[in-house]
Write a structure and sequence with these properties.
single chain; about 160 residues; mainly alpha; Four Helix Bundle (Hemerythrin (Met), subunit A); 6 helices; globular
Length: about 160
Amino acid sequence: MHNPTIISEHIRQVYFGGNWTAVNLKDTLDGISWEMATKKVEPLHTIAELVYHMNYFVTVMLRVLNGKPLQGNDAVSFDCPPINSQADWEGFQKSIIKEIETFADLVTSLPEEQLWELVGDKKYGNYYRNLHGIIEHCHYHLGQIVLLRKLLFSTT
């Protein structure tokens, strides 16, 4: 069974907890200041850039789920908006949380048969592949954020 509700739950778990890995974005970002989120540890991306990048593909698929064409560009997927204060960082996180909640709700409402329909061009595959790809992508970059967090906290 490939139920959109189950996929939606996995999306929520990587962001809010309850997954098999016992790691989630919300808890991982807890206690990270805007200075830490934007601190460059060469040659790695910043935490803010990674969070933006994770959510970039959610934003692309959110537009598709809202009936818009598939439009995204890997070349700009790390172009995080400027974060110059704690208020910027908190606002950035709130916008991502709001977007992921909307995204998960839309995934829940997908008819199961739509999972097997193509998302745009054939080369991008079907909804099932893309939704699971987003989950896998988020876990991958969440691991990087966890390591950066450890590095940054060990140097403060």
